[in-house]
Design goal:
Layout (H helix, E strand, L loop, with lengths): L1 E8 L3 H10 L5 E6 L6 E9 L4 H11 L2 E7 H4 L11 E7 L1 E7 L7
C-alpha cells in the first residue's frame, strides 16, 4: 500500500478531484500554502494499493499543468525585490508535486 501526498495548485484542483472521484479514488483534501510564492495550494492524501499508483499518477499528470506567470515580487514579500529585478519576475506555477510513501497499513476506526 502507498500513501501519495500530492501538492496541487488551486487552479488545477477541481478538475483533478472530479477525475479522482470519477475513477473511484478517495482522498483527503487539505488547504496549504506554498513557501516561495505564498500562493494557494491543496494537498491531497491518497491511499492506494501498489497497483493503483500508476493510474493515480496519470490522472494527476493529465489534470495538473505547469504554466509560466509573471509574479509581483513586492506582493509575495520575498527578498527578490532587493535584488533589483524590477516589479515582476516570471516563474513556473501550477502542476503538482507528488510524494509516494510506503504505508504499512490503513486502519479505519
Amino acid at each position: 500500500m502507498k500513501l501519495l501526498i500530492a501538492i496541487v495548485n488551486k487552479r488545477d484542483i477541481q478538475h483533478l478531484t472530479d477525475a479522482l472521484i470519477d475513477n473511484d479514488f478517495r482522498f483527503t483534501e487539505i488547504g496549504s500554502t506554498g513557501g516561495f510564492l505564498r500562493a494557494g495550494n491543496v494537498t491531497l492524501l491518497i491511499g492506494v494499493d501498489d497497483e493503483r499508483v500508476p493510474p493515480v499518477l496519470e490522472l494527476i499528470q493529465n489534470h495538473c499543468h505547469a504554466r509560466e506567470e509573471a509574479i509581483d515580487v513586492a506582493q509575495i514579500g520575498t527578498h527578490l525585490d532587493a535584488l533589483g529585478l524590477g516589479e515582476a519576475v516570471t516563474t513556473t506555477v501550477g502542476g503538482a508535486q507528488v510524494f509516494i510513501i510506503q504505508a504499512e497499513r490503513m486502519v479505519v476506526v
